[in-house]
Amino acid sequence: MPESPASPAQPPSQPGSPLDAATSSPVPALLRGSVLLLAFLVLQLVLFWSLLGSPASSRFLPAPGRRNTTWPNGAVDAGACEAGLVYVYDLPPEFNHDLVDDCESLWPWYSFCPYLTNGGFGEAAATLPVFFNVTRNVSLHSWYNTDQFQLEVIIHRRLLSHRCRTTDPSQAIAFYVPFYVGLDVGSHLWGDNSTAADRDRAGLRLLRWLKNQTSFQRSGGWDHFITLGRITWDFRRYGDDGWGTNFVVLPGMANVTRLAIEADTLDPMDVGVPYPTGFHPRAAADVRAWQRHVLARKRGKLFGFAGAPRSGFRGDFRGVLLEECEDAGSERCRAVDCRGTRCTDNGAAVLELFLDSRFCLQPRGDSFTRRSMFDCMVAGAVPVLFWRRTAYDQYRWYLPPGPRGDKGEWSVFIDRQALRVGNVSVRDVLEGISERRVRRMQERVVEMIPRLVYASSPNGLGDGMEDALDVALGGVLERIRRRPGSIAREEHPPGTFAARRVGVKSTAAPPHSDGQNGSAAAIGRGAAGKNQRPPASSYIKTVTAEASASISKTLQKS
């Protein structure tokens, strides 16, 4: 082999080498090189598997431990955080990090580990071929296969990097408790040998720890908030028997604001926030690109439905809607069967359905709410609702309290009893809406998208555009500033960052819903029978209560 000018001279022969060997044989050198290369590859493989097997939390959450600076995320502009600073408790890892580390055991039917990657967003759509033909190339980087129960992880990660976070509790006006209580209780809900004590254990330990903190002792929890990654009913068990844990009804939680994907509308400390969808844009420009895409898309179906019949439910309404879809014909309606984990494993199928539909049917899920409504709206389809508590009474910081807000219609409400008895059909109602009116409704839905999604950027969407976390944090900070006496009267959060800027106040709350969605009996009395149905429009319930000015002005800015 030619010798490089920079190569050192050949070393002298070692003692004991053959006398006739002028130079050493190249075979041992090649062998040594091969061994070194093989060792290097083995080492890389070991490191790779170690990374995959390492605690999942280390891949997307900063390692537990306190920081030495008051401003962990850089200098803070005084005007950016005039609403106040947030302190994020550094809890013992058993309450968050350890739960993520044990992701294989959190769910009895499948591993949660893929859904806990990327800070709780799940696997990136760019790595999943099923998404390639559904999302535009320009938007593919904003999409993930996100599980609906990961809100605790998503909000914790975002607050750790929030510009208004402080590590000095004396400077904070709000205190976030990053307990992944949804992940914890979810691991005990279906176990054969699981007991109420198992489901309650972590919550009791958390409250014992919290009550020893000076900030909690000083306020009694009024300036604290937490995220519930499951519906509130999973945390409201009374007594020793029954479903879920008793965490929310424990005395230590009475004053803590709870951000939940489904709230108890009679409990003022519960606040309904959007379910996580698969859309997690990095910046306002990503949102606008997606908004243009969904508005320009030609939709081949009048309406669509993602779900499955629940044979175990008495009077299952989903079965009624599947029949409505079948009766309308394949040229007007398409349904995606979500039995088992089909829609969980393949979020692209649901997204494709709603992108091709002008309207999407949204009955109640296992509880009153369902993630599908937010999937529908992010895809630019108009939701068709049958229960007020699915949206209007639930997400008052995010959605108008009726089909028509102060900026126009955004949804359709159909009396479910009239539909069930056959006095009206979904097809008749939706075909009775003019094309111009449908377009205005779609534009209104698309305008609301930023506030319904959780940005992937640590700094949010930017450019004055608020995402779901911005709205929630603004509302929490405002209710803390107003002190507890006004929380029970709260309707919309005048404290969202946008509302703080424009200085507006909220409107009065609409009348409480009894869950009956209008008087089906009165409608029945007015109908002469199934063969003499009145105009379909008479079954569209118009709710005239309007959304707050804060929602209107925020959307104008975005």
TrEMBL record:
The chain crosses the membrane at residues 29-52. Residues 81-420 form the Exostosin GT47 domain. One of its GO terms (molecular function) is galactosyltransferase activity. It is a single-pass type II membrane protein. It is found in: Golgi apparatus membrane. GO terms for cellular component: Golgi membrane. Residues 518-529 have a biased composition (Low complexity). InterPro entries: Exostosin, Exostosin_GT47. Keywords: Glycosyltransferase, Golgi apparatus, Membrane, Signal-anchor, Transferase, Transmembrane, Transmembrane helix. Residues 1-22, 487-541 are annotated as: Disordered. The keyword Membrane applies. Pfam families: Exostosin_GT47. One of its GO terms (biological process) is xyloglucan biosynthetic process. Belongs to the glycosyltransferase 47 family. PANTHER family: EXOSTOSIN HEPARAN SULFATE GLYCOSYLTRANSFERASE -RELATED, XYLOGLUCAN GALACTOSYLTRANSFERASE XLT2. This is Exostosin GT47 domain-containing protein.
